[in-house]
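Support request, please re-run this one:
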Amino acid sequence: MVPGIAEGSPPPADVGQGARPGQPSQRTGCEHAEQHDGGTHGEAHPVRALAHIMQQRRREQLTVGVTRRRQRGTDIQAMALVAARKTFGVLSQITPRCVTVFEAYRQTERYVSLVSQGARMSVVLTPKTLDVSCGIAAAGTPLHSNIMFWALTNLSLMPKRLTGVDIRPKLVACDFAAPSAAAVRTLNEFCPFTFDANQGRVTFDRSVGNLGIPSADADLQKLLAGVMEQHLTRLGPVGSFEQGLLVVLSEMMNGTMPTLASLSARAGMSQRTLQRRLGEARTSFQALLQKVLQGQAEKLLARGDLSQGEIAFLLGYSEVSAFSRAYRRWTGHPPGAAYA
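Re-run finished. Output below.
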């Protein structure tokens, strides 16, 4: 949690024209008269009630206006701090299953390129740092600063959310003007922030990229791979072998396109042995992969709540057009035509 930012916090004491803590309130004439002109049997006088409502609305407007000027951005950061996994759609299904933080960032980069129009992201691992950069098209507008602040905050919190360890960036560089001095001081309690940079960037120590993600459970994956190896080596008929590989490939669909090398590793046999047995079954790795991809695509399209970009991301494609061409090759019509 970023220090000093709490959901539902009261406005600063010097915001607006209302009473300050520990000081008497400054009343208007109507409010002062309210003390001496009590209504019959305790009923509120309509004129005094109207004056009170108008005064209260004015105070609320002043409070909102000044708070936004003084703390621009902190409300956006508070939103990011409480963002749940469901906020990020299908991306939240993939990143917790990645083995390392770096892999999770790379999957996020691919997701942005496939799904987000007008947005860009890059992940670079240098000898000393892990740099995550992002940007949007609407530069120089209030919308730009709000979106970028929200995005940079989420990117900076991603390692902590995935690993459960209190990891903080070495630097968050913002490509927009700084908010108030008070807001900057609050942000710098979390980590160093700079403003008016050439691009938005979050910088971590390189070691952060190598951190493991507990929810990926690599040990369990190795155990399952060992069990699958035993099962596959016992498979006799070539039909059973082919069906077993289809099941393994389906389980490997985790936002990354399976390869012959990854399938052989999961099946517990060398690539040469795997290719030989595929030949005995009169099939190939590509034939099985395309069958699995088509089956998964049909299931995802049938849901009706995913865009083609999200489906391409889940299937491991790097471009929506590549998924569209593959689906047309499988079925003879564009994606979704059967579900329109």
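The longest strand covers residues 129-136. The chain is about 50% helix and 10% strand.
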